[in-house]
Amino acid sequence: MEEYMKEAPRMMPVIEPLELPERLLLTYKPEEEEVREPIPIVEEKLQVVEEPAPVPSSQIASPPKPEIANTGDLLGLGDSTPTVSAIEESSALASAILPTGDQAGRF
Predict the structure, then answer these.
(1) Rounded distance, CA 55 to CA 61, Å?
(2) Buried b (16+ CB within 10 A) or exposed e, 73-85
(3) Between the CA of residue 99 and those of 2, 83, 102, what are the distances in Å?
(4) Could you tell me the pTM of the whole model?
(5) Nearest partner of 73 among 65, 64, 82, judged by Cα
(6) Which of 28, 33, 73, 102 could form a disulfide with 78 if both were Cys (CB 3.0 to 4.6 A apart)?
(7) What is the 3-state secondary structure (H, E, C) of the chain?
(8) pLDDT tens across 26-55, in order?
């Protein structure tokens, strides 16, 4: 432990002042406000545009419905009686078989 303490880096006090201390200071300088000249308002005559009459809803055709591809039930979530794979059956049977009597020492 003492060797580690001897080899550990030590902090040295800095005697010299930093070269540019003003760079390290956070200061707030308000932005100069620009004097803006008022923009003259030019009055323009608005042209009246007649809007087309609305089309009755009976004449508007509904957009076609997008076709949804039928991929079937890929995860098998719709099956009411899922089939058990052979691996699941064998592991269930293996856990249910218990050796009895003389067979216990043969394995």
Answers:
(1) 11
(2) eeeeeeeeeeeee
(3) 64, 29, 8
(4) 0.16
(5) 82
(6) 73
(7) CHHHHHHCCCCCCCCCCCCCHHHCCCCCCCCCCCCCCCCCCCCCCCCCCCCCCCCCCCCCCCCCCCCCCCCCCCCCCCCCCCCCCHHHHHHHHHHHCCCCHHHHHCC
(8) 777 777 776 677 777 766 666 766 777 776
